[in-house]
Every structure is written in C-alpha cells, then in structure tokens.
Amino acid sequence: MARLSYEDYLRHLRSDSARLREVLTTCDPEARVPGCPDWSAADLLGHHAGVLMFWSTIVEQRPERSGEDWTEPELPTAYDELLALHAEQDARLGAALAAADPAEAAWTWSAEQTVGFTFRRQAHEALIHRLDAEQTTGQVTPLDPELAADGVDEALDIMFGGTPAWGSFAGNGGTVRVDIIDRDESVWVETGRFTGTDPDGGTSYDEDDIAKVEPREDEPDVVVSGTAADLDAWLWRRGDEAAVTVVGDAGVRDHFRGCVNQAIN
Question: Beta-carbon neighbour count of residue 258 at 10 Å?
Fold first, then answer.
C-alpha cells in the first residue's frame, strides 16, 4: 500500500487539528468523549494540545532531543486558554514539520527514527482525535478515504503490530487479510506471540500478538472487510462493529480480535 506524500500528511494534520478545535470551541467542557469514556471534552483538547507540544519540541530540537526525558507540562485549566494553547501548538508543529526534511534523523518511540514518522503519526493522531471531537459534539463528518486506508495500515503495522527491538514476534501460521473495499487494497497480518523484557521497566511479556506480513498466495484463515473509514474507526474503537465484517477460522478470528480490541488513545 502506497503511503501519502509528506505534503498530504501535513495538510491533513493541519485541517483535522483545526476541525477538532472548531467543534470543541462551543462544546461543554465536561461533555463525555464516546471513544474515551474517561475523558471530558476539556481532557481531549488538553491531550491533543500536549501531543502537539511534545512533537513540536522533538522536531525543533532534532536529533539530540529524546522523548524519554520529557516532563508533562502543566496545562491551563480554563477552557478558553486550552483552546488558545491548542491553536498555538497546532501552528508550531505545522511550522516545524514544514521546515524539516522528512528524511532527517529525529527521536521517535518507533523503530523508524526520522522526522517522516512524525508527519505520518501525527496526521493519524489528529484524524482520530478529530473524530473524537465530532462524536462528542454530534457533528461527525466523513473521514478522508485515502488517509483512513493508510490509517488501517498504520494501526495494524505500527500501533498493534510493531515489535520493539528488545522483543521478538513468533508467528503461528494464522493469517488475516483486511480488505479495504472502497480502495481495492488489503493488509495481511499473521497471528503469533510476542515475548521480551522491557529494559526500562523490567516488565516481561509473553502474549498474543499480530505482525504485518507480505500478501500470501494461499487463502487467509480470516477475512476482515469494510470501507477505509469504517475499518480505521473500528480499529481505534471509535466505530460501529456492525460496519465491519469478520469471517473465517474461529481461533484465528478470536486471536486477532483480542489483539486489536484494546484502547489506544
């Protein structure tokens, strides 16, 4: 699946961040966010403002700056000040990315240590939190199909399927093909187990996992299908499961569902 251009990622980041702020401007700050029930509208706004601030700092101070020593800033409590902070950090990250070469080295929490990772990741961060804002206010608008299709790939490859350098993935042969029916594109994953010990916290893992793989010639054990927008929202637990079809081997299906049925904010 071809990725979007970096110019398009930046365009989506800017437009979706602006849309998030637009619909939250007149929202009750205490309104609940359906996709993140523990959050209020103010929490959502503050979270995304903090994310924009974090990645602005990483990109501006590349490549020396690491996110591992980041201290969460104290955010304003007044809603109008949160809106102003979000607008400021939105413009800041947009300017930092526009001035950067995506190929330049920069810290990320992923194996990909380039500014390009931030272009893509933050476009999807803004998209999903824009959807959060729209669901909170009852003003949902369509997701861009091209960006949503890329979001399906990113969710399965990076957010759910990424394996850190200190761990390992062992496939068990079960395969799942995710069909994006309005884009005539598919993403394949294999089921298996992730093992490893996090050197930072010392936590050991031995759990079900998935990993993106190249398309196979054989038929998959499970087929998941839906439009790009429905699949992207479903993978992020922001969409109706009725809009997505999942058929095939019960064991592989349950393994896959277990791996993607977890909150990612």
Answer: 14
CB atoms within 10 A of CB 233: 26
- 3-state percent helix, strand, coil for the chain, nearest multiple of 5: 45, 20, 35
Strands 167-180, 222-226: parallel, antiparallel or unpaired by DSSP? Answer: parallel
3-state SS track over 18-64: HHHHHHHHCCCCCCEECCEEEEEHHHHHHHHHHHHHHHHHHHHCCCC
Nearest residue to 110 (alpha-carbon basis) of 79, 69, 154, 46: 154
| DSSP-derived 3-state class of residue 256 | helix
Neighbouring CB atoms inside 10 A of 219's CB total: 9
- Written as one letter, the residue type at 73 is P
Closest CA to 195 of 169, 231, 223: 169
| Per-position pLDDT tens, the chain of length 265 | 789 999 999 999 999 999 999 999 999 999 999 999 999 999 999 999 999 999 999 999 999 999 998 999 999 999 999 999 999 999 999 999 999 999 999 999 999 999 999 999 999 999 999 999 999 999 999 999 999 999 999 999 999 988 888 899 999 999 999 999 999 999 999 999 999 999 988 999 999 999 999 999 999 999 999 999 999 999 999 998 899 999 999 999 999 999 998 777 6
3-class SS of residue 197:
strand
